[in-house]
Amino acid sequence: MLLLSRLPRTTRRRLAFIALLGVIVGLVLGTTVRAQGAPLRFVYLRGADTLAFETLTPGSGVMHGVLEYRGQPRIAWEQTRAPLRLTLTVFAPGSAADAAPLQVASFVAQGDSMAAEIGARGAMRPQRFASKAGAVPLINNSLLHTALIGALARESGRATIPLFLTNGAQTVDGAVSTTGDTTTVTIGGMSLQVLWQNGVPLEVRVPAQNLRAVRATGGANGEGFAAPKPVSYDAPPGAPYTSETVTIPTPRGYTLAGTLTRPKGVSGPVPVVITISGSGPQDRDSRIPIVRDYAPFRDIADTLGRRGIAVLRYDDRGVGQSGGSGAVRDTATSEDFADDVLSVVQYLRMRDAVDGTRIALAGHSEGGLIAPIVAVKDPRIRAVALLAGPANTGRKILEYQNENGIRAATVSEAQRDSLRRTVPAALDSLARTNRWMRYFMTTDPLVTARRMTQPVLILQGDTDQQVTPEQADTLAATLRRAGNRAVTLRRFPATNHLFLADSSGSPAGYTALKATKVRQEVLGALADWAVRTLGR
Predict the structure, then answer these.
(1) Which of 285, 21, 303 shows the shortest CA–CA distance to 143?
(2) Average pLDDT in the chain
(3) Which of 185, 250, 251, 335 lies in the 20 to 30 Å Cα band around 60?
(4) Of 299, 318, 377, whose CA–CA distance to 343 is shortest?
(5) Are 85 and 62 in contact (CB under 8 A)?
(6) What is the DSSP string of 316-333?
(7) Bigger pLDDT: 133 or 208?
(8) Which three-class secondary structure state does DSSP give residue 4?
(9) What pairing do the DSSP bridges indicate for beta strands 456-461 and 383-387?
(10) Which is nearest to 441 in space by CA: 211, 127, 149, 210?
(11) Residue 451, exposed/middle/buried by CB under 10 A (0-12, 13-18, 19+)?
């Protein structure tokens, strides 16, 4: 009915993880944040997945924000101080900065009700909703608003604040408490922790959902936070390979959309590599909005295409031009996604242009968990490349990531201990309530790895803070002990989880990275192995 209810159901279901989280509060357009002037940039992280980015830009009597989840509509918001009005504008995913909005909504409290105007520019329809006196509108999926409500509590001393949910038209109370530099906000039984530094939010955590928004170092002049440019999956001009848009049927009632690149001037069928993305909804290039021009699967397709090898990269189910949205995607596990890869394999074996006996898989991050599942189910797969693939259970990975974040937080040791105590119960809650997370947290990748008989390439960045480097060593050792004699391991110094040059490897610094193409050493190692293993 209202603004966010217009988003696709798969988006709203995923955002239910962070429902009741954020609030726009005009009263906090005050001293501490407004004095900063420059944009505050945040990266949203859940486990090993980068979910979104958001900027908060203070002005004179007004606060501006832009929130963009990967592959989802861009939400721009504006909060004025006098009158206390919130305006939300929704744009199509990847649209230009001057594009026409899909929808506009504004909210202003009037007594014990919330007055709203909803529609398009020049065609707004007034509505009025029952609320509470002094209520402020809430954007359900913006963590930065939670920091603002914490600021309001610090300034006003109020223990509760009525919040009007723009997605649902309900009013709930938010409970707020502050200890030192940490403000805890509890809304609908869910607690959020806002860490402050020099009067501005440093990090927002939702322990029960393993979700956090961290301050990003940001690129020069806001690089990495601009609206993404329209994406073309065509081969670049003059490339020694062609590109073809393909539609891949599945027995589950939806199709997958992808791009097949194939070297020019080759007679007869050629070997082919299928790319498999990491966690979260990914397009066929595996792009991340916070890293400008980062498209690792496009880099792989270009490199292999120049070495005589075809590549099929595809939009994940429920993403881009692929079907399978809604519950089909939202309840899927890594094993379900492996079924999609098997459909891609079956499709390629029906194509005369590729050699169905020379199909390899290249999986990144969670894709490195999925690829071995496919290889065990289909022993005809010729070879498998694991790029930052996990060797630990998801629970162990999440425990490490939580501890890493807690250590990095600018808080007292007592506060760190307090945060640590919340982790086990939060992970237990995730395992109970989310099917994908339950599978991820309880699955031991080494069990599947021991059953792989194909040649395996393991590539790993030495500064990876999402899948730690020693897991590559564990994978290689496990495969060899199981009798696999065709295991190649390559580790790359000063290289992060994205296989970009990065001496730190912290996800919070991704937006500041200057080189956003996959490192040539990594691409070269993959291409050399593929040519050697698959032949030309």
Answers:
(1) 21
(2) 82
(3) 185
(4) 377
(5) no
(6) PTTSTT----THHHHT--
(7) 133
(8) helix
(9) parallel
(10) 210
(11) middle
- CA torsion 406-412-414-419 (nearest 10°) is -30
Residue 313 · residue 285 · CB < 8 Å? yes
Report the alpha-carbon distance of residue 182 to residue 193 in Å, rounded. 6
248-282 per-residue burial string, b: 16 or more CB within 10 A, e: under 16: bebeeebbbbbbbbbbeeeeebbbbbbbbbbbbbb
Query: Within 13 Å of residue 475, how many CA atoms lie on the same side as its CB?
Result: 35
Does residue 119 come out as left (phi exceeding 0), alpha (psi in the -120 to 50 range) or beta?
left
Q: Are 206 and 21 in contact (CB under 8 A)?
A: yes
Q: What angle do CA 423, 426, 431 make, to 5 degrees?
A: 125
Give Cα separations from 439 to 393, 412, 428, 430, 442 (angstroms): 9, 34, 12, 11, 5
Among candidate residues 404, 397, 330, the one with its CA nearest the CA of residue 368: 397
Judge contact between 395 and 427, C-beta under 8 A.
yes
Q: Under 8 Å CB-to-CB from 508, ≥6 apart: which residues?
A: 43, 214, 215, 216, 217
Specify the amino acid at residue 204: V
Q: Where are the domains of the chain?
A: 3-215, 241-393+443-534
Matching residue, tokens 């994978």: 475
Cis previous bond, 83, omega within 30: yes
Report the percentage of the chain scoring pLDDT > 90. 41
Quick: pLDDT tens for 320-363: 899 998 778 878 999 999 999 999 999 999 999 999 999 999 99
Neighbours of 42 (CB within 10 A): 30
Please give the class, per CATH, of domain 241-393+443-534.
Answer: alpha beta
Query: What is the C-alpha end-to-end distance of the chain, expressed in Å?
Result: 56
The closest of 334, 250, 280, 303 to 520, measured between CA atoms, is 303
pLDDT attached to residue 208: 66
Question: Of the candidates 317, 347, 348, which has an alpha carbon nearest to the alpha carbon of residue 334?
Answer: 317
> In 106-190, which residue ranges form alpha helices assigned H by DSSP?
144-156
Mean pLDDT of all residues in 27-38: 40
d(CA 496, CA 494): 7
3-state secondary structure of 171: strand
**How long is the chain?**
536
Identify the CA nearest to 507 among candidates 367, 379, 388, 342: 388
Phi-psi region of 97 (alpha: psi -120 to 50; beta: other; left: phi over 0): alpha
β-partners of residue 262 are 242
| CB distance 257 to 314 below 8 Å | yes
Neighbours of 180 (CB within 10 A): 11
